[in-house]
Description:
The mean pLDDT is 89. α5 packs across α6 and α8 packs across α9. The relative contact order is 0.15. This protein is globular. It is α/β, with parallel strands linked by helices. The protein has two domains: 91 residues, Rossmann fold, CATH 3.40.50.1860; 107 residues, Rossmann fold (3-Layer(aba) Sandwich), CATH 3.40.50.1860. The chain is built from ten helices and eight strands. The protein has a four-stranded parallel sheet, with helices on both faces. Strands 6-5-7-8 form a four-stranded parallel sheet. The longest helix is centred in the middle third of the chain and has 17 residues.
Amino acid sequence: MKKTIGCLHAHHSNINYIEQAFSSFQEIELVHFVDPGLIQHVAKTNVDLSFKVKEQVEWIASCGVDVILITCTNYIALLNEDELSLSIPIIKIDEPFFQSLCEVTQPQIILFTNPATVDGTMERLYHYAKLHHKTINVQAKVIDKTFELIMQGNKQAYNDAIRHYFREIMGDSRSIAVAQLSMVEAAEQFAKESEMEITHPLQSLVEFVMK
């Protein structure tokens, strides 16, 4: 029996990543919901936007899906589950990712392109580690002046900028991870070219969902 996953994205470019990740699983049907406007508001205002995420999640739940998957870390940080009364599970893409990060014993760099995502993600990561009695040694870094490229639809330039940054830090002895779904393609391309392992959210997500 098929299970339908309703996916909430901050940008349409994330749809393809999720589609490819689950393409070999015929028992899963994906339905996508996209609202890039919220990210623009997060970057430009201090207004509490949790009500908007609540509306989006409740709207997706009303469409008859079996599971909700939130792929945007900003949306996850804004979500207040205490205000929801849903009977279906919500999967937050960063929680399986956090689990994989907490299994790494060496120092790590976690890369971002969207500065507005950093604080919320790192706060949740440290909370997750503490909750699960894990000790992590991580440093967050932002690849400057790249996020606007993907928001403008210039995916090739976006991927090129990320790969260029990878080349600059190749000599770093720390484990490298990318925190955003939009960074996965560049990370996989560079990992293949350089035989350098780069952790990203899709790796752990598929394993978590299929359990």
